[in-house]
Amino acid sequence: MRSKFALITFVCMALPLVACANPALEYVEQGDACCEQSEWDTAIAEYSEAIELDPELALAYSSRAYAYTKKGEYDKAIADCDKAIELDPELAQAYAGRGRAHIARGEFDEAIADCDKAIELDPELAQAYSSRGDAYRKKGEFDRAISDYNTAVEVDPELAVAYNNRGLAYIAKGDLDKVIADCDKAIELDPELVQAYNNRGIAWRGKGNLVEAIANYDKAIELAPDFVVAYSNRASAYFAMGEYDKAIADLSKAIELDPKRAQAYNYRGFTYDKKGEYYKAIADYDKAIELNPNYADAYNNRGRAYFFTGEHDKALADLSKAIELDARLATAYNDRGNVYRVKGELDKAIADYDKAVELNPNYAEAYNSRGNAYGVGKNEYGKAMADFDRAIELNPNYAEAYNNRGLAYGFQGDYDNAMDDFNKAIELDPDFANPYWGRAILWDVLDRTAEAITDLEKCIALSRNSSLTQSAKQKLDELRSQP
Asked: Are 124 and 102 in contact (CB under 8 A)?
């Protein structure tokens, strides 16, 4: 298999034999060997020695630029490429190298122009096609990116990074089977290509195979214990499995490795939210917003946490800020609608729910929320039932929607359908306190006191809502005091 670094720089054997007499080239070769081992500082020192011996050696500048790019010193990389091109305007690798540095700085059009020039000078330079593919991918032009990656692997079938990055483009297009195939190939060519394991994990996560996803993230972390993204992604998989403590542990590790990673604080806060630890969640959202004052999702999530702590004015302020920052954030409209609903401002609530479903017509939670406003709020049970039906159609496993529809049936005196819905909600989520409360009220109406008491006891044991707990305790005391 061709050396990875040989794909982007010349080696002495590729030069005219007479050039090997240049002692500076020995330092270039030593720098290349250091790059193979990811020893960037040592590589830079070797290339610098080569430049000191031969200040006119364009290859040394081009090679040093690669090491600077890998270190994240993009200005130095571009300066070295500029010098290499000044010394040798025909050095295709220098244009390709400058293109990579431009990509890292987010300068995608400049990167494409440089890669175009590299390909013009050397149509067989696979890395130039791959880098241009990276630029197109980051611009969102995924088909053009895939076309360039196709050419890259056609020119060099052993260029592992091109398979991996083509997989990233396929992730964006939602073609997860192709992602897995490309990552498989990348790993076959380079079993230590950490990003390929991470990307394959993303694909398996998208396909719902959380066990495979976690196995791939495990491998990525084994190979690169400081790979922050893999910890965040593994946390996402653990979250989806309901293993919130493991998710928090991974996000805490991501924060330890990168204390300025606002996204990790936001995600950890969201995980605390799911555990009902709202003040811990708020502390994490505070930090995310401190790091990124324009982080709409963090304002949205903090607003939702304030809603659950009963701090409704703070919730409204945060949710309105989220909408100000991102007027298309459907979740913020839904969550703000929930605050208005609890405050009794039902018309404002329904207007926000309307906006949420306008932005996302498949947003089951917003239909469920609007159903609550129409039903319990305005006693418009026809509209409420239509919304609950739509929520369940969109998400047949939505326990809360079954519970709320059960309540609506109950208020209308349709106890059979109400009981069916409460039973279904409990079947879907046995730890959901609310349907036990609804079913207990039905048992009481049906004069089945023993069953009502059992459900109230279960509701109290599961409830994390102080208002619901208090209501259930009062009802339980009432039933127990009956002769």
From this structure: no
Intervals of the chain under pLDDT 50: 1-20
Are the C-beta atoms of 56 and 19 separated by less than 8 Å?
no
* pLDDT given for residue 171 in this prediction: 96
What pLDDT score does 21 carry?
A: 61
- For every residue of 297-321, DSSP letters joined together read HHHHHHHHHHHHTT-HHHHHHHHHH
**Quick one: which of 236, 12, 366 has its CA closest to 374?**
366
| pTM assigned to the model | 0.83
Q: What span, in angstroms and rounded, lies between the C-alpha atoms of 431 and 461?
A: 9
Cα–Cα distance, 25 to 46 (Å, whole number): 10
Whole-number pLDDT of residue 483: 78
464 with 276: CB under 8 angstroms? yes
* Identity of the amino acid at 446: L
What confidence score (pLDDT) does residue 482 get? 87
**pLDDT confidence of residue 345:** 96
| Angle, in degrees to the nearest 10, between helices 126-138 and 160-173 | 20
For residue 368, the number of C-alpha atoms closer than 13 Å in the C-beta half-sphere is 23
**pLDDT computed for residue 1 by the predictor:** 35
* Among candidate residues 7, 8, 25, the one with its CA nearest the CA of residue 16: 25
Report the C-alpha dihedral over residues 141, 143, 144, 149, rounded to 10 degrees. Answer: 120
Please, what is the end-to-end C-alpha distance for the chain in angstroms?
86
Sign of CA dihedral 358, 360, 363, 369: negative
How many other CB atoms sit within 10 Å of the CB of residue 293?
12
Six-digit token pair at 29? Answer: 């070769």
Is the Cβ–Cβ distance between 159 and 131 less than 8 Å? Answer: no
Half-sphere exposure of residue 66: CA atoms within 13 angstroms, side-chain side: 31
The rounded distance, in Å, linking the Cα atoms of 435 and 135 is 52
Nearest to 34 by CA among 64, 58, 8: 64
Q: Does domain 328-430 bear CATH number 1.25.40.10?
A: yes
Residues 6+ apart with CB under 8 A from 346: 340, 373, 377, 378
Q: Which residues contact 259 (CB under 8 A, 6 or more apart)?
A: none
Cβ proximity of 273 and 281 under 8 Å: yes
- Encoding tokens for residue 21? 């007499």
Residue 264 exposed, middle or buried by CB count within 10 Å (0-12, 13-18, 19+): buried
Residue 10 is predicted with a pLDDT of 31
Instruction: Compute the C-alpha angle 203/205/209, nearest 5°.
Output: 105
Distance, in Å, from the CA atom of 239 to the CA atom of 469, rounded to the nearest integer, reads: 27
User: Could you state, in order of their start, the residue ranges of all structural domains in the chain?
Assistant: 328-430, 432-483
